[in-house]
């Protein structure tokens, strides 16, 4: 009867056995096969060689074998050698394989019979313990299969099995053996066959036994090789996997924080969360990254800052809408008062106040719950108020940290270099998240060669289930789309297989930044008091006095809805005007009331404020106020922060960057007031003032006043917008006659600010135009602030740099220069973010400080 020896499909499906489950032939038996198919084998290295192929004597010997099994009670039971499937199986499972792995076979000659004992290092119940093989007389040539019930006999103690007489085992050392098979060899062969045949391959015709044995040995060798190969492959895959996961981690580390949450890396698995389940509103991903310079070749050195304002590119930009400072009213009359009211207040004081407020509220971005872009409105979060004042130790200068040796090297390879086409490229505008990215969780792997995130790569959770080609394509497409978005948001640029960058943008912007009121979160207990009492705060800085105060408003006067508490904003150029405003608008103040105060003036003018206003002054540290105000605005005013895109037109220049409240920190805050403070902010209560500079707003207005006839800051800005800095600054082209290509310094780069204004150069010429001076001055100061901000950002590995302070004033030249400097020098790794309430951060922070006065 023939039984296939190779694994059946079923066993294949069951998978490959573990290495230590494989049965190997005893190492002391060597087999070789001649061309005619003759099989020889040697039990001992220098022992006799036996021939087993089609050997009639051997067959006789085989036939003469008799199995004797002993049950647990010691009663022997005889069987012929063609034992049942089950018996072979048991032999294989409980006897032989264990022997080869854990024990050894001892061949004993006892009473003219060969006795083979199993010796286990560890006693394992073995069927061999209960089975004896005895020589059988030739007349017992019964090959009928008999079923045995070994199951009940398995649990015997150690035993032996015996084979025919020793005389019958004639061996000739060193020669081809006599055509007779010794019983012990036969047993061994049988055992090989049993072991190899395993459960499903029990019976083989006797004359074919040796043939199959040799085949099995070959097979076994091959399998052994395969196992080793398999192990090696596994090790290889592990190291590849680790490498790739490391790569993903690098990419992950450079993603914006909200995407860090979307992409989870755990052990060797990278999971992209279902976007729709993310617990925060994602920023609009169709917003392209800020324009990057055409070339991103790392600079050899950074001695110069490029002037981003190429005169050829300058479009007449509309003058900014400055917040006009009203003259200080001389008295507290209601007529004068109206001149100081914010639009909201004007509406409220007018007969149709409620209607106007309603319209105004609808316009207010923080209330827009169903705008047509893909960003979900922010729900008000119950953010517990950190108790101020904040730890003063944080004000100390931090220990110097070693700057990173390379500036995010992994990013560089993604940058798109377009030297031929003089245009910027963005990625294809991704579809809205809600519809297109509503995918179930899936796993992705990052392919270092193709630089793509691939769906279910072979080594990561490969599904055995075959999906249809279209399904696969669909999934790949979905993943690519998400990858585009990730890349887009992280400023990584992907070149597709054709070498082109997919182009198209549909930026989503809401409105030109203004400085509207902010609605106080309605459900936070800490703001309950504001429904019954107005609160005022002031930030008295080196140049300006900023006031934040609350008012109450209803969308509809007659409705039962809870009214809203609004924060209103005003600024003054003098302390007198500021105090006057407070006197006139804070009508219902009482002596027990508190004026929340921050900035240098909170110390300088503390007594005066208390005296003139008849209230208590409560001081809040300036830096603490800045951070707490920044945190509050980012957290509660959805459209607070935005990036500036000079090349875009109209409102497209302003692209909003709402941020998940959980991922606001860390960030770098560069507050450009009279002077500059650079703060590394890790939480509302943990920050460091890592640096500062005196080259801020004060320097600009001071030098501007000396060098031009501008009367005030706005006048200076207006001049600058008309100016041509090339008449004032020495450019690279003025020195090199063109670009300095070795250093990749463009021809129109500013080599030296005000370089063309030396006495020598000016002599004999008509004096430089003041608008050119104003422009050059503004570029010089904002370039240097941008570079400083980038260096601090880089030093502390920040991804977002928020600019605050009234130097910015949403001025296009300033924002463009700062953005350019940050993008250029950080190679797109950092975002330059501006804020609607740029100059009011400190005043908002002081307003929020409810710690004891
Ligand atoms: N109307 C303005 N008058 C004077 N300076 C202004 C005005 N608007 C903007 N600025 C600029 O803002 C700077 C003051 O910014 P601010 O944040 O208020 O700082 P500070 O707290 O030091 O007053 C000034 O130095 C100036 O460069
Ligand atoms: C002293 C200040 C904190 C005052 O704040 P400001 O009124 O300028 O907003 C600020 O001007 C500043 O940080 N100046 C820079 C000092 C320096 O580090 O060089």
Q: What's the pLDDT, averaged over the residues?
A: 62
State the low-pLDDT regions, or none: 1-30, 52-70, 79-180, 198-202, 274-466, 484-508
Helix content: 25-40%
The CATH homology group name of the domain at 654-760 and 767-839: ATPase, nucleotide binding domain
Question: Looking across the biggest beta sheet, what order are the strands in?
Answer: 21-20-28-27-22-23-24
Number of helices: 23
> How would you sum up the global shape?
flat
Instruction: List how many beta strands DSSP finds.
Output: 28
CATH topology of the domain at 654-760 and 767-839: Nucleotidyltransferase, domain 5
Determine Rg (CA atoms, Å).
43 Å
- How can the largest sheet be summarized? 7 strands, mixed
Task: Examine the secondary-structure arrangement and name the CATH architecture of the domain at 654-760 and 767-839.
Answer: 2-Layer Sandwich
Bound molecules: adenosine-5'-diphosphate, ligand PAZ
In terms of DSSP E residues, the strand content is 15-25%
What distance lies between the first and last C-alpha atoms, to the nearest angstrom? 100 Å
Classified by CATH, the class of the domain at 654-760 and 767-839 is Alpha Beta
Write the SSE topology.
Blueprint: H1 9-13, E1 30-33, E2 39-42, E3 49-51, H2 56-64, E4 65-70, E5 76-80, H3 85-102, E6 103-110, E7 113-120, E8 131-135, E9 161-165, H4 183-197, H5 209-253, H6 257-262, E10 263-266, E11 269-272, H7 334-338, H8 343-349, H9 353-363, H10 409-412, H11 433-436, E12 442-447, E13 452-455, H12 469-490, E14 518-519, E15 536-540, E16 545-553, E17 564-572, H13 575-585, E18 594-598, H14 601-604, H15 606-613, E19 616-619, H16 622-636, E20 641-644, E21 654-656, E22 667-672, E23 676-683, E24 686-693, H17 697-707, H18 713-722, E25 730-731, H19 732-736, E26 750-752, H20 759-762, H21 770-795, E27 800-804, H22 812-826, E28 831-835, H23 841-848
Parallel strand pairs: 15-18, 18-19, 22-27, 27-28
Antiparallel strand pairs: 1-2, 2-3, 4-5, 4-8, 6-7, 7-9, 10-11, 11-12, 12-13, 14-17, 15-16, 16-17, 20-21, 20-28, 22-23, 23-24, 25-26
Helix pairs in contact: 3-4, 4-5, 8-9, 16-23, 17-21, 18-21, 21-22
The structure holds adenosine-5'-diphosphate and ligand PAZ.
């Amino acid at each position: 009867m023939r039984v296939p020896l190779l694994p059946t499909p079923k066993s294949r499906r069951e998978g490959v056995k573990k290495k230590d489950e494989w049965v190997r032939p005893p190492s002391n038996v060597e087999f070789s096969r001649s061309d005619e198919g003759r099989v020889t084998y040697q039990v001992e290295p220098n022992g006799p060689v036996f021939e087993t192929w089609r050997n009639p004597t051997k067959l006789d010997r085989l036939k003469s074998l008799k199995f004797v099994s002993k049950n647990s009670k010691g009663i022997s039971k005889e069987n012929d050698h063609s034992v049942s499937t089950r018996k072979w199986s048991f032999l294989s499972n409980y006897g032989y394989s264990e022997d080869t792995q854990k024990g050894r076979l001892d061949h004993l000659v006892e009473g003219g019979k060969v006795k083979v004992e199993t010796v286990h290092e560890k006693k394992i119940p073995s069927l061999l313990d209960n089975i004896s093989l005895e020589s059988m007389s030739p007349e017992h040539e019964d090959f009928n299969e008999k079923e045995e019930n070994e199951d009940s006999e398995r649990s015997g103690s150690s035993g032996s099995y015996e084979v025919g007489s020793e005389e019958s085992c004639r061996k000739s050392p060193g020669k081809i053996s006599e055509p007779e098979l010794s019983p012990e060899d036969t047993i061994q062969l049988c055992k090989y066959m049993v072991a190899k045949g395993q459960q499903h391959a029990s019976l083989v015709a006797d004359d074919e036994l040796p043939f199959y044995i040799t085949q099995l040995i070959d097979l076994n060798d091959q399998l052994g090789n395969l196992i080793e190969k398999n192990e090696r492959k596994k090790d290889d895959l592990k190291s590849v996997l680790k490498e790739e996961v490391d790569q993903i981690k690098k990419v992950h580390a450079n993603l914006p924080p909200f995407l860090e949450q979307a992409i989870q890396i755990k052990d060797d698995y990278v999971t992209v969360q279902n976007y729709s389940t993310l617990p925060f509103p994602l920023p609009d991903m169709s917003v392209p990254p800020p324009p990057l310079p055409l070339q991103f070749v790392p600079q050899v050195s950074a001695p110069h800052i490029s002037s981003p304002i190429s005169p050829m590119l300058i479009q007449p930009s509309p003058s900014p809408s400055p917040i006009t400072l009203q003259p200080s009213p001389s008295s507290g009359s209601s007529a004068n008062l109206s001149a100081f009211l914010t639009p909201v207040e004007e509406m409220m004081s007018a007969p149709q106040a409620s209607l106007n407020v309603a319209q105004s509220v609808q316009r207010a971005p923080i209330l827009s719950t169903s705008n047509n872009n893909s960003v979900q409105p922010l729900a008000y979060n119950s953010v517990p108020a950190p108790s101020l004042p904040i730890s003063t130790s944080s004000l100390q200068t931090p220990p110097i940290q070693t700057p990173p040796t390379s500036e995010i090297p992994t990013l560089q390879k993604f940058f798109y270099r377009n030297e031929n086409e003089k245009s910027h490229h963005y990625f294809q505008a991704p579809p809205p998240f809600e519809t297109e990215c509503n995918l179930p969780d899936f796993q992705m792997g990052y392919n270092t060669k193709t630089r793509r995130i691939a769906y279910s790569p072979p080594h990561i959770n490969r599904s055995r289930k075959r999906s249809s080609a279209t399904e696969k394509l669909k999934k790949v497409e979905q993943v690519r789309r998400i990858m585009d978005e990730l890349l887009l948001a992280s400023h990584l640029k992907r070149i597709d297989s054709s070498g082109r960058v997919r182009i198209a943008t549909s930026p989503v912007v809401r409105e030109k930044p203004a400085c509207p009121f902010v609605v106080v979160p309605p459900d936070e207990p800490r703001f309950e008091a504001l429904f019954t009492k107005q609160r005022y705060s002031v930030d008295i800085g080196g140049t300006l006095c900023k006031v934040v105060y609350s008012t109450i408003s209803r969308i509809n006067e007659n409705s039962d809805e809870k009214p809203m508490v609004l924060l209103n904003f005003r600024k003054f150029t003098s302390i007198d005007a500021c105090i006057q405003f407070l006197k006139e608008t804070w009508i219902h103040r009482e002596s027990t009331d508190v004026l929340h105060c921050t900035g240098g003036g909170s110390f300088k003018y503390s007594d005066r404020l208390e005296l003139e206003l008849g209230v208590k002054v409560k001081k809040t540290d300036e830096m603490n106020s800045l951070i707490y105000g920044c945190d509050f605005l980012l957290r509660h005013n959805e459209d607070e922060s935005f990036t500036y895109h000079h090349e875009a037109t109209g409102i497209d220049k302003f692209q909003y960057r709402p941020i998940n409240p959980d991922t606001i920190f860390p960030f770098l805050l560069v507050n450009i007031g009279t002077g500059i403070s650079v703060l590394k902010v890790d939480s509302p209560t943990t920050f460091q003032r890592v640096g500062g500079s005196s080259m801020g707003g004060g320097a600009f207005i001071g030098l501007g006043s000396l060098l031009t006839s501008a009367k005030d800051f706005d006048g200076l800005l207006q001049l600058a917008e008309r100016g041509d800095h090339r008449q004032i600054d020495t450019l690279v082209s003025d020195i090199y006659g063109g670009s300095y290509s070795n250093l990749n310094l463009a021809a129109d780069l500013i080599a030296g600010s005000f370089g063309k204004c030396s006495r020598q150069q000016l002599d004999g010429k008509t004096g430089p135009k003041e608008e050119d001076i104003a422009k050059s001055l503004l570029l010089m100061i904002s370039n240097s602030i941008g570079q400083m901000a980038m260096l601090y950002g880089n030093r502390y590995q920040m991804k977002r740099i928020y600019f605050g302070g009234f130097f910015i004033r949403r001025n296009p030249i300033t924002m463009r220069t700062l953005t350019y400097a940050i993008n250029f020098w950080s190679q797109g790794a950092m975002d330059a973010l501006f804020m609607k309430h740029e100059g009011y951060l400190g005043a908002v922070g002081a307003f929020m400080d409810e710690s004891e006065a």
